[in-house]
Amino acid sequence: MAGRVVLHYFNGRGKMESIRWLLTVAEVEFDEVYLNTNEQYKKLLSDGVLMFQQVPMVEIDGMKLVQTKAILNYIAEKYNLHGKDLKDRVMVNMYSEGVMDLMEMIMMVPFSQDPKAKLDTIQTKAKERYLPVFEKALSGPVYLVGGKLSCADVQLLECTLMLEEKFTGILSDFPNIKSFQGRMIQIPAINRFLQPGSKRKPQPDETYVKTIVEVFQIKLPIL
Ligand code: GSN
User: Fold this and answer.
1) Which tens digit of pLDDT belongs to each residue from 152-170?
2) 55 CA closest ligand 1 atom index
3) Which atom of ligand 1 has the smallest separation from the CA of 67?
4) Radius of gyration of the chain from its Cα atoms, rounded to whole angstroms
5) Which of 96, 105, 124, 157 is positioned for an S-S bond with 152, CB 3.0–4.6 A?
6) pLDDT of residue 2
7) What angle do helix axes 68-78 and 151-166 make, rounded to 10 degrees?
8) Cα separation, 80 vs 203, whole angstroms
9) Please, what is the Cα angle at 160 between 130 and 32, to 5 degrees?
């Protein structure tokens, strides 16, 4: 039998958070090894387990996987969260990529030179480019694609919660997305994940940023 799933990343959201969300919805238990020091990172490099010298890295089914999208796709396929056929799957992937683009912008804010300006741009893009797409897709259907829960729905929920943390009331012009959120948080595994004490990570703080600077020995700002 394959062992437990183990996530190798920082003790924070970053690129791993969507993987935590998807495993949670698939009801897969996981352990985490937190990267806190440059020595730990060098050890992973010298062990040859990071294909591109990057994390996230996930041990699952006897493999050591890297590349966030590849990992998400593997979990989505395995747990039937990737659309029912090829045409549904490409739609799931399109929605998912859009959501990930937006989440990546938010993720990078603490590492930027002018966080306030970055946030303003993100808010405008969210309202004008991204949220209208999802508002339209959810005008009737319960889920984004094929009447069936997929990884795109899970990522959209994660993203909309992140947006609301940053921009209070941002969903007030998007009632279909708000209703979608309400339905998604009723899913028992999601509901548990949203409770205090779960494996969901908080918003990045100074300690999180310092850890990344230490692990990769980088200088801020990086953009
Ligand atoms: O999506 C992915 O997993 C990859 N395409 C990118 C992963 C990545 O950029 N990982 C960073 C840390 S997480 N933050 O963005 C990383 O390991 N950087 C170290 C490096 O030398 O690139």
Assistant:
1) 999 999 999 999 999 999 9
2) 17
3) 3
4) 18
5) 96
6) 65
7) 130
8) 29
9) 120
138 alpha carbon – ligand 1 mean position (Å): 32
Q: What does each C-alpha distance from 116 to 13, 34, 43, 112, 123 come to in angstroms?
A: 20, 29, 36, 9, 11
Query: Under a CB-based contact definition with an 8 Å cutoff, are residues 162 and 199 in contact?
Result: no
Residue type present at position 58: V
Judge whether 109 and 147 are in contact, CB under 8 Å.
no
Pick the CATH number of 1-223 from 3.40.50.720, 3.30.70.970, 1.10.357.10, 3.40.30.10: 3.40.30.10
- What residue spans define the domains of the chain? 1-223
For residue 223, give the amino acid letter: L
Question: Residue whose CA is closest, atom 17 of ligand 1?
Answer: 54
Do you know the residue count of the chain?
223
Tell me what the pLDDT averaged over the chain comes to: 97
Distance CA 141, CA 93 (A): 18
Q: Which tens digit of pLDDT belongs to each residue from 17-75?
A: 999 999 999 999 999 999 999 999 999 999 999 999 999 999 999 999 999 999 999 99
Instruction: Give yes or no for residue 184 having a pLDDT over 70.
Output: yes
What letter would DSSP give residue 110?
G
Virtual torsion, Cα 188, 72, 47, 40, nearest 10 deg: -50
Q: Is a pLDDT exceeding 60 seen at residue 1?
A: no
- 94 CB-near residues (< 8 Å, 6+ apart): none
